[in-house]
């Protein structure tokens, strides 16, 4: 039996609170069980040097955990003076995933900065970050549409992510919380779009391996879970959902 | 007339939410108007090298702002690879202030780490951090008393802080919010204890100077404001207030 | 038609030259087409602090490219003073993959350092690094067996990796060289063991997405390619192949 | 009785030697008892990026101690690769204080760099730095007036600083030397202008607190001491003193 | 008797393999006994900021050793986040030496980057780097002549380097390998041009000193050795040798 | 004619002021013309990790210039967060040179830290540093003898250094000041011991070369100059000169 008595294909309780912080163009507090991430999207009216004069925009993400987001206090990366490999991996993943559903030409020469700050961690922080970041980004871009800066929302589809895993007893489960994650033999993060395509699959045996069959089982769970996540996102973005639907039809 | 129609000696709305994050021994969300700071206190069962074998404890503080806590997004210090001078100044101030009301011998050879993470900034983040950090620290130490690790709360008095300033029209005001702070000719942060003594006074003319009379006027406002803050702290710490009262009698 | 007239499921020419550098316990130059990586394995008779006193060993990998391994000269990471996110990701991947086929208890309290230095890059440097690093590691551990330091080779299976991808024309191909990699819509790295299990799957849409069917097609190609790589590894490790076979029977 | 048999309101011996180093536009060796600081002022004909195109100048200060300025050798900050919080605090203080008496518009788009290098430390290095830096800055700006680059000295008033403190026996004293500073219960640095206004007050209880009455007593001592310092400054700057007097009349 | 039975004035076996890596404009693997260095020369069509608008070019060198180029594994400088003093000294030496035989005006506003990566070390890595770097640089510049970018080779003479030393038995020897270098009382690196002039002499007593007579004896050995090195260089650069001869006549 | 009307073999005015800073065990201000260096020697009662348990001591040197020691202000290395290659080269040179005349066994397991801080630069700062550092070191070690910590001065000989050079008119000159140094075709630093042996020779053509004959001419000038420097050192160290003479007889 799983902690919280969850079924193998059952997500934790999820809430997406919008307008969480007042300054950012888009701000969200996403809660997935006891994992809580503040996702703030900021618009900057220029692109980084390597993207200049291409008539295209850019999306970049940063990820961080509060030192005491975890059971043991972690040393602050700002105090250490450098980002860990884990942090770099995660923020590269978030940015790459978001870019898969944004039409960068339509965005124009501006940058969306997405900051994912984990204030409480209980497993699945990177997938919660992606799911929340998508909403924050839509809210920020929606504001540009509301203000007539952009004609349409340059979003081509929904985007959400979830973790799946194989436990030592060979069961495959959805949305691992920390105690499950620390025991899992295999851990996989899956990012998908609204039309059911994959954006990213990262499956890792933790001093273990996994079979083709286990892979397929995990993918099925992930697809099911992500389909649910889209519903939470739709509610959070409100009227902007219609703009995404229009955009999808065009594409 | 001040923003929010406040009187010169009027604090903003204040809330201190305890148990905000689940992992830390003491966790508080302090809200002072639109300034919001998460204060987490962690207990570590050892002291830094320079304090070893002295039979005493230590208290150290870290301070950080989310990149989009402010109107303009700030570059993350972890990404820059070093702390700014401002951050260092503030975290040194917080730690020093807290140590003024802790009996380090009674604390024993352990370290209290206090993390002050500003998630939304609207002026007075360092004083809100001190006021909230005191509560988080009491909650963490109170847990040690509850668990019989400590016999008594090694806290000698209450501790809170507020900002005061002189405006270009020569008025002196209490608890500056950001739009006031950016216009003020003089900015002063005052840290006081429950018995009305000063722990720290930092008054700075911003390309301006201030007279002896203005100084006294600011100190009066600060004393009045801080006295109010103690009431919020007492409510937040609940039964532990009695332990502080006992401790004060002993001293 | 692919560059070099390769079929979709065809590997590039592969050589694994052993004893390439004289000092390391295991040293290999692996050549995959025009990609050339020096893989050196060093044995250190202690483990990092977080692994001490557990009776287990550790494996850590480092990855670097010569500045002119690529068409454009890259700034040296040592000159920049920090590792890029890409480098960190890759060296974490290599270390994690190798640990999946080593019995860390049997290794004992020692560390294997595997250095993968790309001297010429033409796509697939991370998968070539894993494939070559496995051989270097076997040679280094084999020397410990030869010298009676270890009784048996603490290797539980073969390990190799290859890249697969989806091209803009929707074809799926094996072992992408640089010109293919830079055009691919989807890029996936697969790490497998000799018994046909997955250790790691990392599939990424490059501002694109991929379907379930494309995923399966890529996995098939990868499995076919990796099966061939094992043959090159067996030849390179010579007599040590028997020790691996014995070990696998035991497990 | 104080070390050196000083009265509570008595400064140490003070000398301000001008023209100490030949290259800087203004150079001073200030000696306050056994504390010796080289203060060099350099003029740069441009401003930092954040000040450009505002028709105003800027003043920035740097502070450092030789490793063996102190009884125990300190590790060089250049060797550690970062500035300590203490150094940052001090150099921010010096620059802020100097800016309070410079008319940045009259200075024009140029930067004054003030380097304060402590070659021997015996307490009060930050206040000696401010007092000496003011003289070095006047000398450098005076040279611009002599060379007809500036029409008038853009200095609005004198500026000097001193430390005061409360000792464990509750006495308040002026100009603490190291042995006093290390025992003091309260340490306060005061920066004032020639017209008797405060620029900065930084009072800190060292694991202690201080009363309103002690504060006033310290401020009185500081005011008395700083008034004396202005005489040393006047002598050091020679004829430029008249230019400051003229400027003050205008303001 | 020396290791390898060499005479005191005898070089180790030397090979210079050209075209070693495919991307760089000039690429060489130089082997001096068991010391192996990859020297890659890259042409960049601009100069660093401090050289701009002077109508001249620039040459800069970087030097690095693979972690396991040596008997003991060295920590990677990229992992440490900074270059060692030794590395900086060597790369400054290589760049300075190369600039002595290049006509920077004739080179025009472009930079030659020379990367010397030691893949196997057995003494004399810095002198092998200079000797190999010269060849790589000639090949890169020769390509510019072949492509009519430059009219003539902007090389004024040959350049090579060797180490000499004094052993504990007072013998002076040429081209020290590692076991000799670690015992030598004096170690000297000599860089010379084809016309027999010195470019650089760096002689160091290793907790020892050397006499005028020993100095002259070492210089004679060095001159003899370097004269031999020029023959290997001539063979490696092939037809470009004629262009150097022409250039020398002109000068 | 040279600046200051000096002859080719003429040193600048030299003074060595002892006891310059009060805290260090040995402290010297050496003045060579307008070059001024504070040399402080500190004794630490332990050795760095790589020297432990060998019954021997260690000597390490650090070198720095004040930002405005030069005509143009240099950015502080502590502010940049890293030492330049030039600084590293120089401090390695100073330490190595000093170690050549110290009997590390007799020194015992302690470290001598020598800090050379250039407060005013006019050419020859590294050689002035060595010459001054020797005196500071003797004073510090002499204090250990005075205090009976050491039985004898563990110094085997005098040590001094000077620069020589070849000018564009082919003249060779001694002790270059800055205007000469910036024009010189060849610059050489020579470190010698009291018995006329070389410790270090570093000769560099600055985009130029030098002949065997020019080398010998420079060495003669250097020997003459250094012989004079020993007289200044003897005066500075006073009675300790006898201890060095005794030590030399023993050796």
Automatic annotation (TrEMBL), chains A, B, C, D, E, F:
GO terms for molecular function: 3'-5'-RNA exonuclease activity; tRNA binding; tRNA nucleotidyltransferase activity. The keyword DNA damage does not apply. GO terms for biological process: rRNA 3'-end processing; rRNA catabolic process; tRNA processing. The keyword tRNA-binding applies. Residues 10-140, 157-225 form the Exoribonuclease phosphorolytic domain. Homohexameric ring arranged as a trimer of dimers. This is Ribonuclease PH. It comes from Halolactibacillus alkaliphilus.
